[in-house]
Amino acid sequence: MEATINSGAPRVPWNKDKLTGQKSPLKRKEIWAIRIRLQLGAKTRDLAMFNLAIDSKLRACDLTKLRVRDVCLGTRVVPRATVMQQKNAATGAIRDHRANAG
Fold this sequence. Notes:
- The structure is a single chain.
- The protein is an alpha+beta fold and 102 residues long.
- The chain has helices spanning 28-40, 44-56, 60-63, 68-71, and strands spanning 72-73, 76-77, 80-84, 91-95.
- The chain is 33% helix and 14% strand.
- A hairpin with a 6-residue loop joins strand 3 and strand 4.
- The N and C termini lie far apart (74 Å).
- Residues 1-22 are annotated as: Disordered.
- This is Integrase.
- One of its GO terms (molecular function) is DNA binding.
């Protein structure tokens, strides 16, 4: 039993005339522009998540699964943490660059 629906108008694909596929990586200038906007907007959480994403090169699906206990020990941020990536089962390193600052 097959039912066909024909509204008379041709169906337009959702991605017609749109660029699809892998996006190009952010340029340094774009990264700093985003960081500055987040700082000026006092969006501390968003800035921390953005810096973590850029520094660790983790995917969004891996970042959203992180919990505070994954990157903190008590009230201190750990200088280094390891996260197992979901899509390719590789490990991603999270480092606190302030630990190396002199």
